[in-house]
Each structure stands twice: as structure tokens, then as C-alpha cells.
Amino acid sequence: MTAVSHEKIKNKLKPNSKIATASIILVLTTLITLTALNTQENQDDQGFNRADLMFMNMMIVHHNQAIEMAEMAENRTENENILELSNNISKAQREENRQMTKWMQNQGFEPGNHHRMAGMASEQQMQQLRENNGTEFNHLFAKLMIEHHQGGIAMAEQFHQTGKNTELKQMQQQMIDAQTEEIKKMRKWQREDQL
Questions:
Q1: Which pTM does this prediction carry?
Q2: How far apart, in whole angstroms, are the C-alpha atoms of residue 76 and residue 137?
Q3: Euclidean distance between CA atoms 88 and 171, whole angstroms
Q4: Same domain membership, residue 162 and residue 69
Q5: Are residues 91 and 182 in the same domain?
Q6: Are 55 and 93 part of one and the same domain?
Q7: Which stretches are transmembrane (predicted)?
């Protein structure tokens, strides 16, 4: 093979080598970028987005009223159904508030006051509840708590779609399940005159 032939071959290979090198660089750059994006996405999954923080702030306020309503029952009724239910509501929602407050504080936020939300009783309704005892209290409690739970379920369902944090999503589903079941119980007591 002549020297000219060697030179022609080298010249033909050079452009191909440049293309190959550029292709390799492009592939490596793409892989590095995708790895970085995946890592960031995994880190974000462990955190909270704006919808998560908004939900927690609103739900803490929402829960506070349900807890207040539930704790009225101890001194206002002897109905075992209402006493057991109110105890369960108070315990569950206090624990959920404790956890949500901790999550918010870890993100640098403090829960704040919020306007009255879906299902929450008005101050006039709360005062009526405070002023009633016995059967009257039981009926009003069930009515207001059903409405309160319906509002809470609607909030949990809405933010379940827009939130990010896995643990909070699990808590939201637990709220939905528990409060749906409690509504069924209260409606049954209303129908069967067990209040």
C-alpha cells in the first residue's frame, strides 16, 4: 500500500473519529444529567411541596376544632357511642396534629391561624354545642361532626392529588378512611335513634 493510500485512509478516519468522540461525550453528558435529575427527584420525594405545607397548616386548624368538639362530650353526655367516638377523634387528631406540626417545624414553618374552612362549625354553632347536654348535645354533636368530617375528607382528597410527601399522603388516606367510617357510624345512630 502506498503512502498516499495511507494518508487517504487517515483523512477518512479523522472525521469519523471526531463524530464518534462527540457521540460518546453526548451520551455521557446525557447520562450524567439524567442521574442528577433522578437524584434530585428522589430527594424531593422525601420533602414537602407547597401543597403539603398548605394542607398541614389548614388541617391543624381544622383538627383543633374537632378536638374541641370531641372534648366537650365528656361533661355533656353519658351516651357510650358518643363518648367512645369523641375519645377516638381526640386521640387520633391530636397525634396527627403533633406529627404535622413537627414536619412543618422541620421545614422552618410554624402552623398559623387560618380562616374557617369547609365543614367547620361557626362560632354560634360551637356555642350551641357548649350550651347543650344529653340527647340535645348528642344530636347536635353528630350533625356538626358529620359536616366537619365531610369538609376534612374533601380537603384530604384534594391535597392528596397535589401533594408530594409519601408519609403525608399515607396520613391523608388514613384520615379519609377513618372519618368516612365515623360518618357511617353517626348516620346509623341517627337512623336507629341511638343518640
A1: 0.75
A2: 7
A3: 16
A4: yes
A5: yes
A6: yes
A7: 20-37
